[in-house]
Amino acid sequence: xLEGKRVTLRGLExxxxxxxxxxxxxxxxxxxxxxxxxxxxxxxxxxxxxTWKMRQEGKGHIFGIELHSSRKLIGTCGLVRISxxxxxxxxxxxxxxxxxxxxxxxxxALHLLLDYAFNILNLHxxxxxxxxxxxxxxxxxxxxxxxxxxxxxxxxxxxxxxxDSLFMDILADEYGQKQS
Length: 180
Ligand SMILES: CC(C)(COP(=O)(O)OP(=O)(O)OC[C@H]1O[C@@H](n2cnc3c(N)ncnc32)[C@H](O)[C@@H]1OP(=O)(O)O)[C@@H](O)C(=O)NCCC(=O)NCCS
Prior knowledge:
It is built from six helices and eight strands. It has one domain: Aminopeptidase, CATH 3.40.630.30. Strands 1-2-3-4-5-6-8-7 form an eight-stranded mixed sheet, sandwiched between helices. It has helices at 17-24, 27-32, 41-56, 105-120, 135-144, 172-179; strands at 2-3, 7-10, 61-67, 73-83, 88-95, 125-131, 147-158, 161-171. The mean pLDDT is 94. β4 (73-83) and β5 (88-95) form a beta hairpin. It is of the alpha+beta class. The protein is globular, with a radius of gyration of 16 Å. Residues 29, 32-33, 75, 93-95, 101-107, 130, 134-137, 139-140, 143 line the site of coenzyme A.
């Protein structure tokens, strides 16, 4: 478990599936994640089982984001596509319960995850992809030290139009400098 001031990052259990899909099937959230088709509880359980497999194989580390105060699961985050040669990984995060957006919890979870990536897993680079109009997410990523590195034109079909996706990344020494 990774402990912050207000949130803990912990492994997912099959019993989390119900809470996750309650919010994950909300189209507003799914579209921020570049997806649109709803999923079933069984598919969510399969995804959770797959997070355990990824961790065992060293390919990914996915956590639930839990509030300290109530032990409520409010989202998930993690590192996937871990490359043992290049020491890189892709970061993803979703606070699914909308009432918890914009309260600084996402930035806290990102700090916990980057600290884990660079200081525990000894990664060199963490990258992500974000849709161009996801201003809240972009603001959070810039806040913890990510930089813009590229653009995929018209990569996502959202709300009837094509949107660009942006690449962002952060290197271990940049994160270290930001902390000191
Ligand atoms: C992206 C996400 C993790 C951010 O977490 P959060 O807890 O909502 O964000 P925080 O409160 O920690 O920080 C948000 C920052 O963006 C700012 N912000 C909030 N709403 C904003 C908006 N509509 N436009 C621009 N900036 C906004 C906040 O003011 C804050 O910056 P500040 O501290 O400098 O004022 C969360 O909103 C989320 O999970 N969204 C849905 C799924 C998603 O988009 N995932 C990312 C896919 S790439």
